[in-house]
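re: that chain from earlier
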Amino acid sequence: SFCTLLKRTVSVIMAHLNHYKPPAFEWSQDDSKLEVRVPLSALGASIAPKSLTVEVKEKDILVAKHQDSVVLQQRLHDNVEVDQWNVEDGDTLVVDLKKLDNDSWPCLLRLPMRPDDPRIVRGDDLDALLRTEMTRLPRDEELEKEAAAADAAADDDFDDMLEDALDEVTAAEKKEAEAKAAAEKEAEEAQEDGDETEQSKHATDYELKMTAEEFEQLANLRKETEEKLAADETTEEEKEKLRDRRAMIDKMVELSKKVRRLRSKRPTMPVLLEILQCEIWKGRLNHGALEETETEGFRDDEEKNMSADELLKKGVSCLESDIEDAMHYLRLAAIHHDHPVSTSLLQRLYSQMRVLPKAAYFVMRRALKDDMEPSSNLIVGEFADKGMPLFPPYMALVVYFYQRSATVGSTHAMLTLANTYKQGAVTASPADETSRKKNADEDKFLDWLAAAEERGSPRAYFIRASLHTTGECGQTKSAKLAKQYLDKVKRTEPSILTKAPGLENRINQMLREEAGEGGMPELEATSGSKPASPASASGAGNGIIQPRQSAASRLQQLEAATGGASSAVERPSRAGGMLSKRANNAAANKWKGRLEKCVRIGVGCYFAYCMIFPVRVVLAQQAFETMAYFMELFGLGAYIAGGGARGAMMGF
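^ sequence. v structure.
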């Protein structure tokens, strides 16, 4: 409706006013160098170029000072050193930097986001999105009683028993009040969640069936293991393996029951993360990991004193010769130093070895650290986005991990978030068209695109250029704006255009059309009449083939239809086009003749000057003597002698 369209337009405009701030810098790069151009007006008023100084601190912080005050301080994507800098045209600071690592940069600035940035979805809003995707299973009374009994047994001691005996009546009343409050809270949550759809009911029934089958399979494995242990023909070595298997099955049952209890809780992000970690542990149990965390011991003091980078280097050097040693060093760096590069490398190696639970464990462990390391969070977000094993394809889960990566400045995560909000679903999501439209948010798409653009992302420039060619998402359809962003892509990462050459062709076509070079404009219909179609004009509509008319007759018909030759309507016929072309050629020839005449006059004057020059040199002395004679004759000799006006007066 019109109101909806108006509301969306206003929201897009407000999103631009609140969040979108075009970067005040321009930059370009090649394999080894980059150039940063900053307008002096962006650094502050009354900046004197002579008082500027530019330096790089800590290898990646670009600092510009005006006298003693810092006017620019930005952390760059990687380590650099200053090559040279200058102020161009008095109003633009140009800094040439040399890369210490010859790699292509995905952006210029490594700029973290503010903790209160409105683009980040938190808390209840994220949980509300999760509840649209994750179904809540009904409670299992037997599992609840079993868990309560286990908790009571763990907390049972003499002091608690004495306190319970003294306050038995009060405890009963308190327990009744807590049960009543829990029932009221559950009723409120059920009312907020709303009625289940047929699809969610089907998903719930399917999960309950799969859970029951899992418990049945584990029970059968447990029974089979006990029977083999009790058999007389089983050797001691086999019994030891069977005991380990029994312990693994018991732990699997324990984790499955915990997951089942968590699935009966109201879906929230902390609950989902706990479920994921339990599922990853269950997967690791199949590879013999009985402990919740992975461990790796140092072989000697030399390994213990090695840094994370040294362990990584040692592990990489052993990859081709001894894979076990390589894994040992990488695990040391990942477990004891939380090294992100070693963690990513371990994830790839375990994935290639088809040990996906351990690959998921290491990257998940690193991603959930408080420092929100960008690469690990980005990998977990991609796992959920693609629906990899152990990671459900929930949009809320994808947003959660991509946001953690984007918060510390990852432009890749920002652009992936933008695309997720534009699509309204993750890549592997089976969401229907209605759910996609409900979850799609153009405002958030533009917000995250602007965040990446503020940090100088070439891919953000490319997306912005594409939007200006189509006019999507409330963007102005303009070839000029699209060309500006396309030029930024060419300066920063031209390899993008090789993968999508059609964009540049579309922009060039739009530029030709806006300049009037895209072909003959269509004839506008006058008020109260409609232009005749080619079929009706030629008689093709009634099946009769008309003879081809001459250009003169078509011109006469057009003049008659538009009110004669005095009509103000343009006649883009072939004859009119030829007349206009001849007039343009005549005007061009006229100016060409004038230009040739000017050139001939200029060449003649220069030739005359060159010919007179030797004569002037020969006659110069005689000319000066003649002038001196007349000066003496009129009493101006003292002036010529060097006294000027004062000498002339003394002479008189």
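The longest strand covers residues 80-88.
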